[in-house]
């Protein structure tokens, strides 16, 4: 499909925030991408326009039935001023997988990638260069048909917005304390847990709030059926090092197939470190901590990359991992992934693309 992406440049560039103010997802660049869909025309009118609010009918289906999906990836500026994206093709594939689950029409992945590149190039002066910073890219789709009948929308918008970011967690790469959630669950197999859709994140807020009130940074999610198998940590995939083997919950229909997760597995395989994707029960972790074999744990995601876990709080027990500092393997993975993403290390895996 040949599409021409039109560009309308802003006449009023925004003042950019200081790098120390960035945080995560608080500031947005000068432009955004939009493309519309309706059942007669398919996807049409791909365009880059000045960043601005959009007018929505209050009856738009997304407000009522949550028919929406999103993605997240980052663009980096290297020391020699090249712009790199990390495995963006995987995001576009996953976007369409989520679209399929939410009954949203597929998007031409090549066009979406082209749109993303052109938008980043348009706003390239917004890519922060300090260590630990990047330009977070948020593609998303919303159902815009104004109708309260519960049926797939006949109209949609696909949009991409950009946000210069620093660390996702205030702790950065320092270990965080985690509450093992026993009341709420995030998702069940057959539901939408493996799609990147708003409802999964909304469903997690209550437990997150409870954990925050108790002084923990995140929750560890257990499965919704047996309430004993590990699923995710906060909004990230999770890994544990038990002696010299790394284990992570297998893809089971309720957890998100993270791109950082896949990257970590591939790196470990390349380093000849045994890595297993399988069911992991909370009892197994408690036992492993008691006998000293649970050495490290960390979350993986685009936003934080690697987030080490310092302690797990399960029922009345505090299971401390390591000695409060980032584990050796967590640090090695963090340095390898961020090094490749930033162009500091050679990308021997072909994961980055330059735009
Ligand atoms: C990620 O780790 O990239 C996430 O999914 C978090 C995002 C929702 C901010």
Automatic annotation (TrEMBL):
It is an enzyme of class 2 (transferase). The modification N6-(pyridoxal phosphate)lysine is found at residue 196. It holds the Pfam family Aminotran_4. One of its GO terms (molecular function) is L-leucine-2-oxoglutarate transaminase activity. Pathway: Amino-acid biosynthesis; L-valine biosynthesis; L-valine from pyruvate: step 4/4; Amino-acid biosynthesis; L-isoleucine biosynthesis; L-isoleucine from 2-oxobutanoate: step 4/4; Amino-acid biosynthesis; L-leucine biosynthesis; L-leucine from 3-methyl-2-oxobutanoate: step 4/4. One of its GO terms (biological process) is isoleucine biosynthetic process. Its EC number is 2.6.1.42. Keywords: Amino-acid biosynthesis, Aminotransferase, Branched-chain amino acid biosynthesis, Pyridoxal phosphate, Transferase. CDD domains: BCAT_beta_family. The keyword Transferase applies. It catalyses: L-isoleucine + 2-oxoglutarate = (S)-3-methyl-2-oxopentanoate + L-glutamate; L-valine + 2-oxoglutarate = 3-methyl-2-oxobutanoate + L-glutamate; L-leucine + 2-oxoglutarate = 4-methyl-2-oxopentanoate + L-glutamate. Its cofactor is pyridoxal 5'-phosphate. InterPro entries: Aminotrans_IV, Aminotrans_IV_CS, Aminotransferase-like, B_amino_transII, BCAT-like_C, BCAT-like_N, BCAT_family. Belongs to the class-IV pyridoxal-phosphate-dependent aminotransferase family. This is Branched-chain-amino-acid aminotransferase. It comes from Paenibacillus selenitireducens.
């Amino acid at each position: 499909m040949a599409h021409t992406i039109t560009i309308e440049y802003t006449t009023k560039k925004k003042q950019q925030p200081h790098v120390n103010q960035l945080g995560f997802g608080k500031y947005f660049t000068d432009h955004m991408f939009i493309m519309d869909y309706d059942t007669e025309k398919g996807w049409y009118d791909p365009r880059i326009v000045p960043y601005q609010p959009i007018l929505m009918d209050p009856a738009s289906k997304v407000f009522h039935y949550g028919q929406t999906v999103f993605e997240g990836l980052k663009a980096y500026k290297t020391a020699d001023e090249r712009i790199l994206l990390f495995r963006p093709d995987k995001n576009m594939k996953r976007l369409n997988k989520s679209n399929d689950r939410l009954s949203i029409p597929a998007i031409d992945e090549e066009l979406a990638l082209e749109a993303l590149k052109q938008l980043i190039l348009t706003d390239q002066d917004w890519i922060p260069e300090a260590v630990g910073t990047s330009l977070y890219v948020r593609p998303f789709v919303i159902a815009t048909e104004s109708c309260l009948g519960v049926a797939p929308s006949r109209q949609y918008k696909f949009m991409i917005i950009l946000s210069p970011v620093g660390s996702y967690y205030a702790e950065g790469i320092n270990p965080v304390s985690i509450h093992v959630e026993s009341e709420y669950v995030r998702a069940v197999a057959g539901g939408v847990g493996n799609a990147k859709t708003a409802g999964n994140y909304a469903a997690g807020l209550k437990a997150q709030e409870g954990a925050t009130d108790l002084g923990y940074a995140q929750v560890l999610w257990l499965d919704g059926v047996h309430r004993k198998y590990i699923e995710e940590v906060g909004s990230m995939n999770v890994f544990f090092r038990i002696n010299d083997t790394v284990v992570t919950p297998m893809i089971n229909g309720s957890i998100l197939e993270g791109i950082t997760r896949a990257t970590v597995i591939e790196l470990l395989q390349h380093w000849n470190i045994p890595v297993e994707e399988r069911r992991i029960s909370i009892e197994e972790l408690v036992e492993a901590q008691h006998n000293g074999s649970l050495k490290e744990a960390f979350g993986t995601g685009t936003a934080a990359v690697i987030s080490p876990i310092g302690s797990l709080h399960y029922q009345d027990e505090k299971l401390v991992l390591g000695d409060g500092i980032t584990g050796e393997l967590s640090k090695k993975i963090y340095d390898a992934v961020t090094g490749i993403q930033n162009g500091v290390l050679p990308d021997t895996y072909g994961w980055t693309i330059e735009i």
